[in-house]
Design goal:
By secondary structure, the protein is α+β, with helices and mostly antiparallel strands. The chain has four helices and five strands; from the N terminus they run E-E-E-E-E-H-H-H-H. The protein has a single domain, classed as YlxR-like (Hypothetical Cytosolic Protein, Chain: A, 2-Layer Sandwich). Helix content is 34%, strand content 13%.
């Protein structure tokens, strides 16, 4: 289980995308990772300092903008990776702040 740095919801690791400082998308690179479930959550994490908190270092706006653009090009925008699984919150749930399904017992 991992926590999305944008919406702060817990998801299975396979349902998230790992972003490594300085703004690379990789599930296998070494270094501190920040996990996001959607492009919207990546944008939110950029605004709220979620990436800086996860990476434990400040990141400039240009790097964050490039990261979001990379995510847009690698995912379907505004959709949660693994959305077909009922155990993963939808983007609407992330944005609305409604409770996500409890996936800890699965």
């Amino acid at each position: 289980m991992r926590t999305c740095v944008g919406c702060r919801r817990r998801h299975p690791a396979h349902a998230l995308t790992r972003c490594v400082h300085p703004g690379r998308v990789s599930n296998s690179s070494a270094g501190r990772g920040a996990w996001v479930c959607s492009v919207n959550c990546a944008e939110s994490a950029g605004r709220s300092g979620g990436f800086a908190r996860a990476w434990r270092r400040s990141t400039d706006a240009r790097t964050l903008a490039e990261l979001v653009e990379t995510l847009r090009n690698t995912q379907v925008p505004n959709r949660v990776i693994g959305e077909e699984s009922s155990s993963v919150a939808t983007v609407a749930e992330c944005e609305a702040g409604s409770p996500a399904d409890d996936v800890r017992n699965q």
